[in-house]
C-alpha cells in the first residue's frame, strides 16, 4: 500500500505528521520545560477526590486527638474520684487508731507506741495522697474547714477561736473529705 493512500494509524496522517486528535492530546499535557527534551509532567495530584480524602483524613486525625484528650481528662477525673472513695473508706480506721491512742493515755507501753506509729504512718499516707490532716487548736474558726459542734465561753480567748478538735478534718478546698469537728469559743454572757 502506498503511504499516501493508507488510512491514518497511531495518530499519524499519511504524510507522517500527527493528526489533529493526537496533537490535541499532546497539547493537553503541559511540558516540563519547553525545548529541553524533558518528559511531560503528569497532572498534579490535587483533584477533587484526593482533596476530599485528605480533608476526611485530617478530620479523622482531629477527632482522634479530641478523643484522646477527652479520654485523658476522664481518666484523671475517674482516678481522683476513686482515690477519694478509697481514702474516705479508710478514715474510720484512722479515727479508731486515734481513739485507741487517746484511751491509752500517756501510758507508754510498747503496744500503745506501736499503735501511735501506725496512726502516724496512716496520716502521712493520707497527706501524701493529697488529704492533709487538720487538727489545729487556737486557729480562727473557718466554716469551710471546721464544723462547730459546740460553743464554750472561755476567759482570755476571743470569740471564734478553735478550742478543741473532737474529730480531725482531712483535705483542702475542693478535695476536702470532711471538715474538722471542733469546739469554738464564744462571747461571754
UniProtKB/TrEMBL annotation:
Gene Ontology BP term (one): protein folding
Region listing for Disordered, in residue ranges: 1-50
Cellular component GO terms held in the UniProt record: cytoplasm
PROSITE patterns to which the protein is assigned, alphabetical: GRPE (PS01071)
Pfam family, one: GrpE
Biased composition (Low complexity): 32-49
Coiled coil residues, start to end: none
GO MF term list: adenyl-nucleotide exchange factor activity; protein homodimerization activity; protein-folding chaperone binding; unfolded protein binding
Location in the cell: Cytoplasm
Domain of life: Bacteria
Role of this protein: Participates actively in the response to hyperosmotic and heat shock by preventing the aggregation of stress-denatured proteins, in association with DnaK and GrpE. It is the nucleotide exchange factor for DnaK and may function as a thermosensor. Unfolded proteins bind initially to DnaJ; upon interaction with the DnaJ-bound protein, DnaK hydrolyzes its bound ATP, resulting in the formation of a stable complex. GrpE releases ADP from DnaK; ATP binding to DnaK triggers the release of the substrate protein, thus completing the reaction cycle.
Assembly information from the UniProt record: Homodimer.
Similarity section: Belongs to the GrpE family.
Name used for this protein in its record: Protein GrpE
Amino acid at each position: 500500500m502506498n503511504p499516501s493512500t493508507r488510512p491514518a494509524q497511531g495518530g499519524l496522517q499519511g504524510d507522517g505528521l500527527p493528526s489533529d486528535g493526537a496533537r490535541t492530546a499532546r497539547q493537553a499535557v503541559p511540558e516540563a520545560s519547553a525545548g529541553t527534551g524533558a518528559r511531560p509532567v503528569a497532572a498534579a495530584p490535587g483533584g477533587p477526590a484526593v482533596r476530599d480524602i485528605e480533608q476526611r483524613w485530617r478530620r479523622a486525625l482531629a477527632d482522634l486527638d479530641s478523643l484522646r484528650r477527652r479520654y485523658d481528662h476522664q481518666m484523671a477525673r475517674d482516678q481522683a474520684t476513686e482515690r477519694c472513695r478509697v481514702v474516705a473508706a479508710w478514715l474510720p480506721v484512722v479515727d479508731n487508731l486515734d481513739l485507741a491512742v487517746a484511751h491509752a493515755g500517756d501510758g507508754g507501753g510498747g503496744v500503745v507506741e506501736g499503735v501511735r506509729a501506725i496512726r502516724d504512718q496512716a496520716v502521712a499516707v493520707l497527706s501524701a495522697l493529697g488529704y492533709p490532716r487538720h487538727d489545729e487548736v487556737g486557729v480562727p474558726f473557718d466554716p469551710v474547714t471546721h464544723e462547730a459542734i459546740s460553743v464554750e465561753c472561755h476567759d482570755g480567748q476571743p470569740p471564734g477561736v478553735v478550742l478543741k478538735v473532737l474529730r480531725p478534718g482531712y483535705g483542702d478546698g475542693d478535695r476536702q473529705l470532711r471538715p474538722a469537728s471542733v469546739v469554738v469559743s464564744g462571747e461571754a454572757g
